[in-house]
Design brief:
By secondary structure, this protein is an alpha+beta fold. It folds into two domains: about 1-75, Arc Repressor Mutant, subunit A (Orthogonal Bundle); about 115-255, 2-Layer Sandwich (Endonuclease, Chain A), CATH 3.30.870. It has helices at about 1-10, 15-25, 30-40, 45-55, 80-105, 120-135, 150-165, 180-190, 235-250, and strands at about 30, 60-65, 65-70, 115-120, 140-145, 170-175, 195-200, 210, 215-220, 225-230, 255. Helix 1 crosses helix 2 (about 15-25) and helix 6 runs parallel beside helix 7 (about 150-165). It is elongated.
């Protein structure tokens, strides 16, 4: 029964409407008062829901001796109902495509909504690395380079070779000076246009930030906290690019190229 109601709700019925439709299938054509008792809904409310079911094509009504009787539409006819809905949706999609230029004209070029995507686990963070690989935009990293072993392996085995093969954009990076980050730079120095170290006593980054185009990634890649957030917003991205430049120009940064 639960599966039936779930299916009916997916077709656009609310919980009470699906209960009424199922009840009418079981008890046949009945007056509203009988339906109300069956589904335990006040009679006044049942009329409202029955009316909606008639409009949606799930219930039909007939009058006998001045009394309204309601019955469920044969479930076999629901397929025809869905076909009509599909046809209507196809028409609406076609209409939308035709109206899209008009909608685009209405969009203000000055309004930008932030789009936020969340990632979790090793697989999720590796997907974020893939986003960085695929972007044609210049990339700016701020990082401690303290990674979960599997994420670190993915960066060294996938990101570094991909960038060596197709160095299509600029990449700059500011790192906290750790043994791991120093070792990484020795192995991957050639894929970056500029790298700067900041002493751990001055700034101890605990996450990685990647800034590119209109996007910012925040990656927490420690073993105990594998989470990431991707924000797509030009104002925030441009602000973070400015922050990166200020850090790059700081006297506390030790440039290695």
């Amino acid at each position: 029964m639960k599966d039936l109601k779930t299916f009916l709700e997916a077709l656009g019925l609310n919980e009470k409407e699906s209960s009424i439709y199922v009840a009418l299938l079981q008890i046949g054509s009945q007056a509203a008062s009988v339906v109300a008792k069956r589904v335990k809904i006040p009679r006044s409310s049942v009329f409202f829901h029955l009316d909606n079911l008639i409009k949606k094509g799930f219930v039909k009504k007939d009058i006998r001796s001045n009394i309204q009787y309601f019955s469920a539409v044969d479930p076999a006819k629901l397929e025809k109902l869905l076909e009509r809905k599909r046809s209507k949706i196809d028409d609406q999609i076609g209409e939308l495509k035709g109206l899209m230029p008009d909608f685009n004209l209405l969009k203000s070029p000055f309004v930008n909504e932030a789009k936020v995507t969340y990632f979790e686990g090793v697989e999720g963070l590796c997907k974020m690395v893939d986003e960085v690989i695929q972007t044609p935009e210049d990339i700016y990293f701020i990082s401690a380079h303290v990674f979960h072993p599997e994420v670190r392996k993915y960066i060294r085995d996938v990101y570094v070779p991909s960038r060596r093969q197709s160095k299509k954009n600029k990449a700059e990076m500011i790192l906290t000076s750790y043994n791991d980050s120093e070792d990484y730079v020795k192995q991957a120095r050639d894929i970056y246009d500029w790298i700067g170290f900041v002493d751990q006593k001055d700034v101890d980054f605990e996450a990685t930030i990647a800034i590119y185009g209109n996007s910012i990634q925040f990656l927490s890649t420690k073993i105990e906290d594998l989470t990431g957030v991707l924000i797509e917003n030009p104002f925030l991205a441009n602000t973070m690019k400015g922050v990166f430049q200020l850090m790059k120009d700081s006297r506390k940064i030790r440039s290695v190229g």
